[in-house]
Write a structure and sequence with these properties.
Elements lengths: L9 H18 L3 E8 L2 E9 L12 E2 L4 H14 L23 H5 L25 H5 L16 H15 L3 H13 L16 E3 L6 E3 L9 H4 L2 E2 L1 H13 L7 H7 L13 E3 L4 E5 L2 E10 L2 E8 L4 E7 L7 H15 L15 H4 L3 E5 L2 E7 L5 E5 L7 E5 L5 E3 L8 E6 L5 E6 L2 E4 L24
Antiparallel strand pairs: 1-2, 1-11, 3-6, 4-5, 7-8, 8-9, 9-10, 10-11, 12-13, 12-19, 13-14, 14-15, 15-16, 16-17, 17-18, 18-19
Helix pairs in contact: 1-10, 2-5, 2-6
InterPro entries: AmpC-like, Beta-lactam-related, Beta-lactam/transpept-like, DUF7586
Pfam families: Beta-lactamase, DUF7586
Protein name: Beta-lactamase family protein
Amino acid sequence: MTSPFEGLLRSTERALLHRVAVAQSEGRAPSLVGAVARDGRLVWSGARGRAEADMPDADTQYRIGSLTKTFTAVLVLRLRDEGMLDLNDPLDKYLSGTGVGESTIAQLLSHSAGLAAESPAPWWERTPGALRPELADVLGEQPVLHPAGRRYHYSNTGYTLLGLLIEAVRRKPWEEVLRSELLEPLGMHRTSCDPQAPHASGWAVHPWADVVMPEPAEDLGLMAPAGQLWSTAADLCRFAGFLVEGDERVLSADSVREMGTASAPSEPGDWDSAYGLGLQIVRRNGRTLIGHSGSLPGFVACLWTDAEEGVAAVVLANATSGPLPAAAAADLVHIVAEAEPRLPELWRPMPEVDEALLELTGAWYWGTAAFGLKLVADRGVELYPLSGNGRGSRFRARPDGTWGGLDGYFAGETLRMVRGSDGHLVHLDLGSFVFTREPYDPAAEVPGGVDEGGWRGLPL
C-alpha cells in the first residue's frame, strides 16, 4: 500500500524526537538514532549525541548484533522455497560431523534445538573469531543442554550452524550469499560485515560515573551469521518494509509471514514474547510487533514492525548497556500509530461476481453456533462468529474448488462445499465440521444425525 502522505505531522515528529532524546539521556548513550518507516518508506529520523565528531543520522552505521540472525534466517528460507532443503530435515543431511546433526533446521531457526546459548570461554563477542577456527571450538564439549523441540533456549551457536548450512548448500561464503541474494536486491548498500564510514564507535559507559571506555570491534569468524553486521537506520527501515510486505526477488510475503509466526514455546510466565523463524514476536502497548533486537559490546539495536498499521521503527545506540532500544522502538511505533492511525483500505466493489461464490455468503450454523461467511479478494472467503467467542479463519481459494485455512484454529484445514444430487448447496464441510443453513438442518449430513422429533419445548 502506498502512503498518501509525504511525511508526518510536526506534532508527531516532536513526540518522536522527545522519545529519542529521553532514550539517549536516560540510557546514557554517547549517541542514539531513531527512525520510522511507514508502508515501507522512511518518513522520519532523529538523533541525539555524537558519533565520532559528528551528529549521527539515518546513514550512520552502527553494529546491530543479533539482528544479523534475521538476515541469516531469510537466506535459509530462500533455500527452502527453492526446494534445496526442508525445514524438518536434520542438520546432518547437509552438514555431517557436527555432533548436533539430529537437530532440525526449523529447531535451529527457532532456538528450540536445545543448544547452548554461547560458545566456550573466552567471551566470543569481545575476542577475535580466529580463536575459534573450527566448529568444535564454537560448540564446545557440551553443545546440547536441553531435549530438542521441548523449550525455547536462545542459541548463538545455532546460527553459526545455519551460516555453515547456507555455505554448504550454496557452495559460497555466507557473506557473499548475503550480499548477492538479500542486501543488493533490497538496496541495502550501507549494510556490511565490516564498518564503513560514517560509522559510530562502540563505548562502555561507567555505571557510576559519566565516563566511557572504548569497546573492541572484533571480527566474529564462524559466529558471524549470529551477530556480525553493521547497518544504518535507513537501511533497516528498508529491511522492515521487506519484513512486512515481502519481496519476490528475495522472499515471498507468505514465507516472511511464516518467519513471524511463533514456532517455539515461550518461557513460563512470558506470554508477551515468542520466537518464530529468525524473528521475535512481542506484545507492547497493546500491539503485536515483529522484528529483532541485537547487542554486541559497544552497541545495542532494535527493529520492530507493526504490520497492521504499516509502521516500523529502528533504534540504534553505541553503548554496551543502558539504552533500552526495544522499549524505545516500540514506543516510536506506538506514537505514530496513535497520532496518525492508518486509513482503512478503500472500499470498492468486486470487478465481477461469481454466482457460485455468492451462494456461499451469509449465515451458517455449526450446531447452534451462528457464523457469517463473506467473500474477500481473489476468491477467498472469511468465516467469523456472529456473536460471542468462536473459531474464525480466513481461507484462500485452491484450484480444485476448495479453500485452505490461512490462520486461527482452521489454519491449513480444508473448507469445501457439499452439494446434493440436484446440485443444490446443502452444507459446508470444514475439517469434518458440518456448517448448515439452519441449526441442525435435517437435510444435511449432520454427524450423529438429527432427532426425528425436531425442536421441542420442555415442560416445567
